[in-house]
Design a protein that fits this description.
Blueprint: H1 10-13, E1 19-28, E2 35-45, E3 50-54, H2 61-68, E4 76-81, E5 84-85, H3 91-100, E6 102-106, H4 117-127, H5 132-145, H6 161-174, E7 179-183, H7 191-206, E8 211-216, E9 227-232, E10 235-238
Parallel strand pairs: 3-8, 3-9, 6-7, 7-8
Antiparallel strand pairs: 1-2, 1-4, 4-5, 9-10
The structure holds adenosine-5'-diphosphate (ADP) and magnesium ion.
Length: 241
């Protein structure tokens, strides 16, 4: 009874963190002009949780998210993803890690303007070599999941900001990442639309298999989170909500 052997993720079966940062430092440049963006950050992302990092512009949020997702390396401390030490990986291994374990969403959506919503979502699957039929099924499923299936053939310019962000979220989910990292996903949206996107992220976490890490300078976004941290001057602290 204790061991069903049915766990989808061997790394989370024993309760291990999906992503673990220990004493992470990130300094840009050197000497007098050095910027210490992160000064000893500890963070554990557990499965199926919505974590929000709050902080003003320039507080280090994007730096932290980039390191958590393997886009960037720390200049000090350690980062483990799925129990594996990222600093010890080759650039190619980190690329694979980003493709398989982590999905990114940015405030500027980053959709290809001349492709339809469905085609945009299909791009990473094409790169990953998923066969056409499987690709189409998966694209349809994630578009449905984010509530934009009826706009599958629309191009980005024919979609509102909120709809474009839904497509970007679908694209990130299509790769079936264990962690979805969203850097100010509501930054270019009005308050009401931003809240809908935040609710969507909440629903994605609740529906099962993905952990979501969001950076925001909007204090209200924290209301739907499981864990909230404040980043200030490169230091991360649990928020006293
Ligand atoms: P946030 O996302 O909270 O606005 P960032 O992580 O972008 O914060 O930036 C944190 C600090 O690091 C800022 O002082 C910023 O100017 C600096 N910084 C960010 N990226 C770079 C870079 N590539 N080169 C030099 N400084 C950088
Ligand atoms: Mg930023």
């Amino acid at each position: 009874m204790a061991d069903t052997g049915a766990s989808r993720s061997s790394n989370s079966a024993d309760g291990d963190a999906l992503i673990e940062l220990r004493g992470v430092e990130r300094t840009y440049g050197s000497g007098h002009t050095a910027v210490r963006a992160l000064r000893g950050v500890d963070l554990e992302l557990k499965p199926a949780r919505l974590t929000v990092i709050r902080g003003r512009s320039g507080s280090g949020k994007s730096t932290l998210l980039g390191i958590a997702g393997g886009l960037d390396l720390p200049t000090g401390g350690r980062i483990r993803v799925g129990g594996r030490d990222v600093s010890a990986m080759t650039a190619r291994e980190r690329l694979l890690l980003r493709r398989t374990e982590v999905g990114f969403v940015f405030q500027s959506f980053g959709l290809v303007p001349f492709l339809s919503a469905a085609e945009n979502v299909g791009v990473p699957l094409r790169i990953a070599g998923i066969p056409p039929q499987q690709r189409e099924e998966r694209v349809a499923r994630v578009l449905e999941e984010v509530g934009i299936a009826s706009h599958a053939r629309h191009r980005p310019a024919e979609l509102s900001g909120g709809q474009q962000q839904r497509v970007a979220i679908a694209r990130a989910l299509a790769q079936r990442p264990r962690v979805l990292i969203a850097d100010e996903p509501t930054g270019h949206l009005d308050a009401e639309t931003g809240l809908l996107i935040m609710r969507l992220l909440r629903r994605i976490v609740d529906s099962g298999t993905v952990t979501v890490l969001v950076a925001t300078h909007d204090a209200r976004m924290a209301e739907l989170a499981d864990d909230v941290f404040d980043l200030r001057d490169g230091h991360l602290r649990p928020a006293s909500i």
